[in-house]
C-alpha cells in the first residue's frame, strides 16, 4: 500500500508542477499583453476619412 500512496503523491506533485508552469505562462502573457501596448508608440491617425 505505501507504494501506491507514494505513486499518487508523485503524480499529484507532477500535476501541481504543470499547473504552476501554466499559471506562470498565463501571468507572463497577461503582463505582456497589458504593458506592451503602452510601450509601443501608437501611430498618429491623420489620414482618417473625416479629419
UniProtKB/TrEMBL annotation:
Source organism superkingdom: Bacteria
Keyword Transmembrane on entry: yes
Membrane-spanning ranges: 18-40
Keywords for the protein's UniProt record, in alphabetical order: Membrane, Transmembrane, Transmembrane helix
Protein name according to UniProt: SH3 type 3 domain-containing protein
Organism: Enterobacter cloacae
Amino acid at each position: 500500500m505505501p507504494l501506491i500512496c507514494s505513486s499518487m503523491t508523485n503524480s499529484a506533485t507532477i500535476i501541481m508542477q504543470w499547473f504552476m508552469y501554466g499559471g506562470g505562462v498565463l501571468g507572463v502573457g497577461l503582463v505582456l499583453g497589458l504593458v506592451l501596448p503602452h510601450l509601443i508608440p501608437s501611430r498618429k491617425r491623420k489620414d482618417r476619412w473625416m479629419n
